[in-house]
């Protein structure tokens, strides 16, 4: 089985929490590696064989939970990591999933060659901000501060990414 099919067959680790009834919680991990390679190694194999296009076509039907779990296994120092993270961000179906992944984006290994991908993330972020309007808070009796918290978080991410973009596009002084 090739690296793409192995990765598609992979069931990522899930944690199940059990209470002992005395205030203690035990964590059970359900990690299953049905093959000899960890997801990061399989991603390296996909890179080495140049099969990213086929990989992206193959993950089109994967649920958001799988895509987010995969994002946690990407080695951030690899040259392909930013491209894959941006691709995953674009493929996520739900707003909540996009919010989960985009929160990590300021910590990705941004370089000057990633300026187009950075702009894509900024565009997705702006769309999330635009979708987060007071109109979503249609309940007049709602005292929920969720709107303010979400807008504050998104604006903070936008500011961090804008600073990264500014540093990336700044001409080198001589």
Give the SSE layout.
Elements: H1 3-9, E1 15-19, E2 25-29, H2 39-49, H3 52-58, H4 64-72, H5 81-91, H6 95-102, H7 115-131, H8 146-169
Antiparallel strand pairs: 1-2
Description:
The chain has 174 residues and is mostly helical. The protein starts with a helix and ends in a 5-residue tail after the last helix. Helix 7 runs antiparallel to helix 8. The protein has a two-stranded antiparallel sheet.
Structural class: mainly alpha
Globally, the shape reads globular
Indicate the percent of residues in helices: 40-55%
Please state the CA-atom Rg, rounded to the nearest Å: 19 Å
- Average pLDDT rating: 84
The biggest beta sheet reads: 2 strands, antiparallel
Number-wise, the strands total 2
N- and C-termini, Cα separation: 52 Å
Number of helices: 8
Side-by-side strand order of the widest sheet: 1-2
- Low-confidence sequence ranges: none
- The share of residues in extended strands comes to 5-15%
User: H/E series, N to C?
Assistant: HEEHHHHHHH
